[in-house]
């Protein structure tokens, strides 16, 4: 069973002439939505899963996206010394109290960045 009854519609996007451009666009849209809200990690995983040519590629591209997000957050903290404003919403979206979110922000941000995109991308690609 697939999400798209006719898989040939996505073949040109996955393997065609514009496959790299579509993947880059999925990265950019995912990054922009992740900056706005942590649910952007799932959006990035969804988009990368749709445009990946295979489930293994979906897992690899989504995992690399998560690694880049985790590295970007770590670099920001190292340079600026505080968490980005959008990271403050991560704990709140997980339902943590403000006192707990101060302690949980670093761990929660890294865990979400590394686990959510591959977890969404791989089944999406397997079904589509």
From TrEMBL:
It comes from the Archaea. This is Uncharacterized protein. It comes from Halolamina salifodinae. The chain crosses the membrane at residues 24-51, 58-79, 99-116. Keywords: Membrane, Transmembrane, Transmembrane helix.
């Amino acid at each position: 069973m697939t999400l798209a009854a006719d898989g040939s519609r996505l073949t040109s996007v996955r393997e065609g002439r514009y496959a790299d451009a579509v993947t880059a666009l999925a990265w950019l849209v995912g990054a922009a939505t992740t900056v706005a809200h942590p649910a952007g990690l799932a959006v990035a995983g969804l988009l990368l899963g749709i445009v990946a040519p295979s489930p293994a590629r979906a897992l690899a591209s989504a995992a690399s996206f998560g690694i880049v997000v985790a590295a970007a957050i770590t670099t920001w903290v190292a340079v600026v010394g505080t968490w980005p404003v959008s990271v403050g919403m991560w704990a709140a979206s997980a339902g943590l109290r403000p006192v707990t979110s101060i302690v949980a922000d670093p761990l929660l941000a890294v865990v979400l960045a590394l686990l959510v995109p591959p977890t969404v991308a791989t089944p999406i690609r397997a079904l589509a």
